[in-house]
Amino acid sequence: MPTLPEECIRLSSGYPDPTLVPSIKIKEAVSKLIEQEQDLPLHYLGSPRMEKLKYQIQNRLAKRGINVRVNELLITSGACQAIDLISRVLLDEDSLVVVEAPTYMEALEIFQNYTKQIINIPIDANGLQTHLLEEVLKDRQQKNLPLPRLLYTIPTAHNPTSTTMEHERREHLVKLAEEYNFLIVEDDAYGELSFDDEPVPLKAMDTNARVLHVGSLSKVVAPGMRVGWIAGNEEFISTFAWFKKDLDQPFSQATMAAYLEDIDFEERILMLKGAYSKKCETIINSLEIHLPESVTWYKPGGGYFVWVHVPGIDTLELLERSLKKGISFIPGKYFFLNPQDGTEFLRLSFCYEGEAEIIEGIKRLGQLITQKLNVKSSLK
User: Fold this and answer.
1) Cα(310)–Cα(342) distance, rounded to whole angstroms?
2) Which end of the chain is less crowded, N or C, counting CB atoms within 10 A of the terminal residue's CB?
3) With contact defined as beta carbons under 8 Å apart, do 195 and 280 qualify?
4) What is the domain extent for residue 369?
5) 66 and 116 belong to one structural domain
């Protein structure tokens, strides 16, 4: 992203609503931690609460149907470190990775650090199109081409589209992983921010250790704490831990454990779902009012974003005009293996700004898109 102008309405930011970050509670957790443990959390080895954090996350996963032992769980510095560790251990330059189209831009960049053998499978309103994946796998097998080592997916409240993979496709994907002998990296960063009934995580369906479940507290507590995890087969977890060495965040992890001791996490999740669902409704209503009929979008199933298709408009060029009007968004090109596939798409965030700013931002964006389409029409 270019430098954003002052007073810009940030419909690009994938950050939590500042009013929902529990800064006071985290301050109290830090005070309690230092008072009880003095200098201990500030050392390399850290606090005993680091180990407690594992059990807290283990218990949280169990409530979602993911039953893992503590030695099948590794705490990481956010989800990105988890994805990087998985890639570092399991990939080489000849390894084939399958990603969704579109997909999370930073994960795509991480995979490209380790291999150039990447293919993509499109998603639709119901998530990854597993029937298309099966066709590709069958074709590669028949032609004796390499099959994937990993498939990376964000099945719940997908980034950037906020779609959620339907249950039948989840079952089909796990079955394909077993049949074609690949691993699934399930990025569940937004998994607890589903607006409807929470879907069953892929890891909860996993009976043959095919799924490496990546999670994070960034979206539901605070991103700057850098607390994430990998849940998976013990042999994988011990190897990831060896490569991670001592690249922990002892103070953050101990603080998070102290914070989680004193809150009702279930209540917090319900509060977040309500708040983000309301903001999502605001942005969808604004899109319906202010955008031309030719512009379409997926209805978010949860999370932070709306994925918008603007036919006939290069959204990178649109961003230049948009920033001058004080609105930012992310052009779609950054979410695709082939950037040209995303030329007519953009990602809007409803998580960060207040409802009044969302309404005003979409109004200005709608005016820009309408003007641009009118100009194109007049030139025909």
Assistant:
1) 10
2) C
3) yes
4) 9-21+266-379
5) yes
Helix (H, G, I), strand (E, B) or coil at 73: strand
Please report where in the chains the tokens 């101990």 appear, as a residue: 254
The residues, any chain, with a CB within 8 Å of residue 31's CB and separated by 6 or more, are none
Last residue of a domain, one of 205, 226, 261: 261
Tens of pLDDT, residue by residue over 63-86, are: 999 999 999 999 999 999 999 999
User: pTM, whole model, 2 decimals?
Assistant: 0.95
Regarding whether 256 and 360 lie in a shared domain, the answer is no
Whether residue 252 sits in one domain with residue 314 = no
Q: What angle do CA 322, 335, 326 make, to 5 degrees?
A: 15
In the DSSP assignment, the letter for residue 48 is T
Q: Do residues 78 and 198 both lie within one domain? A: yes
Q: Which residues, 6 or more positions from 208, have their beta carbon under 8 angstroms from its beta carbon?
A: 178
Q: Which residues contact 65 (CB under 8 A, 6 or more apart)?
A: 200, 201, 204
Q: How many domains does the chain have?
A: 2
CA distance 230 to 297: 32
User: What H or E segment, with its residue span, contains residue 27?
Assistant: helix 23-37
DSSP one-letter code for 245: T
Radius of gyration of the chain (CA): 21
Residue positions counted in the chain: 380
Does a structural domain hold residue 241?
yes
Look up residue 201 and give its two tokens: 């995580």
- Rounded alpha-carbon distances, angstroms, from residue 165 to 65, 149, 194, 205, 348: 17, 21, 11, 14, 20
Here the tokens at position 225 are: 């704490």
Residue where one domain finishes, among candidates 228, 244, 261: 261
The answer to whether residues 151 and 160 touch, using CB atoms and an 8 Å cutoff, is no
Residue 283: which CATH number? 3.90.1150.10
Largest CA distance in the chain: 72
The pLDDT confidence band at residue 372, using thresholds 50, 70 and 90, is confident
The one-letter amino acid code at 16 reads P
User: 192 and 269 in contact (C-beta within 8 Å)?
Assistant: yes
* Per-residue confidence band for 198, with pLDDT thresholds at 50, 70 and 90: confident
> Which pair of structure tokens corresponds to residue 337?
């293996």
The burial of 176, by beta-carbon neighbours within 10 Å (0-12 exposed, 13-18 middle, 19 or more buried), is given as buried
Interior angle at CA 228, CA 224 and CA 229, nearest 5: 170
What DSSP string describes 154-192? --SS-TTT-----HHHHHHHHHHHHHHT-EEEEE-TTTT
